[in-house]
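Two quick folds needed for the group meeting slides. Do the first one here.
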Amino acid sequence: MIAYWIESASLAQLQELWWLLCSVVGSLFLFLTFVQGGQSLLWQVARTEDEKTLIINSLGRKWELTFTTLVLFGGALFAAFPKFYATSFGGAYWVWILILFTFIVQAVSYEFRKKPNNLLGSKTYEAFLFINGSVGILLIGAAVGTFFTGSNFVLSNYNFVTWTSSLRGLEAAFSLFNLSVGLFLVFNARALGAMYLVNNIDFTGVEELEGRLREAALKNFKLSLPFLIWMLIHLLPMDGFAVNEKGEVFRQTWKYLLNLNANPLLGLALVSGLILVTAGALITGRTRSTAGIWFAGLGTVLFALAVFGTAGYNNTAFYPSKVDLQSSLTIYNASSSRYTLQAMSWVALAIPFVLAYVAYVWKAMDRKKLTLAELTGKNAREVY
């Protein structure tokens, strides 16, 4: 049945499928930013070296997943929507260079923070982890915001990219809407990080740390709400970038609200995601349960899917040009050929098996909660 669909699917159907698959990967990445969020909490919640050691080693077990998912997201966009990849990464390269730089210093920090006689000292590497968890996520949020506010580029008939701002993508950070998206993601990641740490650590010997983490989860969730509200009240009535039957792009009032109305599943994902994130924060902050991360994690994925779906489906330009409307990119004019998308769809059949393996490894790693004795005892095996 699946094989028949892949072989018989039209180009438009394959384009919509691959926008969904890219959105799933992007949404999973936003959930996995609990690593970055936890890093940015380090100086706020850790009062002793033992507490700091516990937090960094707990997050250190998962940091590769976030980085790998980010690379996978970029690779999927490159293969499925190469014109977008070339336009954004080729034009707005300063913002992407800074984002990648924050992830590079994260990797270096986990590798060298505890190396004997390291050149920069452990506090410098901890500062790098904070930069990755704050500046890196803020810039990613600003980049996501441009799916709705647009960017400063023009495409020639030969798809040559001319970027009309000398800031090369950094101008996105000067939009209040883009900043609200970025700051929401920063505080949401911090809340997720606190929830993950509550779930992952055995607090024997550091009981006060658990209380501070539970408080941080609820506090950062509350701090995310103003930016979430600002984002939604500006997004729903915003003039969007619609595409007519001739492929021409034009501005349409209330476009993104119309998209949610046209696809009730997107609206359901949006509302359900917000409810689940709220439930996760309340479960962690108001009860003794450690399950909040799973509610909030699923909620983050659903909310992100709604955002990506609203940006790309229902004949919408997902990467609009503020300079030349007809240079705007849609999932139809930015995609690879039908043959390429078909071949990629066959490869994508392995995705469930990969996810099952990741889930198995995750469960095996977390079968026993991380303890302080494991890191500082006689047979300690501290890694980070």
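Then this one, please, same format:
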Amino acid sequence: MTEHTGLAARKKAAREAAFLRRELAHRSAGAQAAHLTRWIAEHPGRAVAGYMPMRSEIDPLPAMTAAAATARVGVPVIEAAGQPLRFREWRPGCALKRGHFGADIPVSGDWITPGIVIVPLVAFDRHGHRLGYGGGFYDRTLERLRAAGPVTAVGFAFAAQEAEEIPIEPTDQPLDLVITESGIVVPT
């Protein structure tokens, strides 16, 4: 077994265990976005990229709605495999259509460049590493955004999605912090 194959198998096993933990947390979730909403409010005017929750993902929409009162808010649009995401402006109640992988995206709107990116994830650790769905979209996107200027990558997850260690590779982009329904985790 090559080193790459071993890493892929470890990521697959970590992803499966994390999906199960997330599903269990989703079933018992209460006020999920309270800490995220407060944190974004402390950074007024910065453009925010959120996401439209799917399956058992923690729901950032309350925080995105609050942010839209003072800043531009966008959601990710997948334009092609292997490419970074782009963010189309979103407003509460805007017309949506189904995008790639079943995520809703605005029917129309300007493209925005966010200063804050709320990143969905499958699992995270205390070092700011995240396990995504395996497509690399957020890694490519954060790399591109960071090369152009300051951006804060905020992982948003249930506390139950925390793992002891996430297997990483050189292309994985770290999170600046993780916000859960229980509080804020600053990487060590």
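Slide caption for protein two: The chain has a mean pLDDT of 92.
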